[in-house]
Amino acid sequence: MGNESKRLVHDLYNSLVQSNTGEEMEDIKEVLLKVYKRLNDSKENPPMINRLINFIYFKAFTEKLTFSEEQDELIRQLSGIGQKAGLNGSYRANYGDKSQF
After folding, report:
1. Domain CATH number, residue 35
2. What percent of the chain has a predicted confidence (pLDDT) above 90?
3. Greater pLDDT, 54 or 101
4. What whole-number distance in Å separates Cα of residue 58 and Cα of residue 61?
5. Residue pair 38/101 in contact by the 8 Å Cβ criterion
6. How many domains does the chain have?
7. Is the pLDDT of residue 69 over 90?
8. What is the model's pLDDT at position 29?
9. Domain of 85?
10. Is the pLDDT of residue 70 over 70?
11. Which of 28, 19, 24 is nearest to 51 (CA)?
């Protein structure tokens, strides 16, 4: 699972960089880099991926961001991994705060 989540985060980051999204996606790209660097311990992966997905959904909703079909698919796959974190996966953190990563 760790390699899969790391690959998905890497692919999503590369897709955002290649799409020339401008500054509206900078926070998401910054968080993706932080998460990518920390994805080693398989016990930490699902909760961290869950926080990442909540952050992405929160940013997309509050800043009216849109993603390509490829990016949406990568986010859906990451969401499936994040769901394995259970009820306490998000640790009830502020969804829009990138300092949680």
Report:
1. 1.20.1440.50
2. 51
3. 54
4. 5
5. yes
6. 1
7. yes
8. 93
9. 2-100
10. yes
11. 28
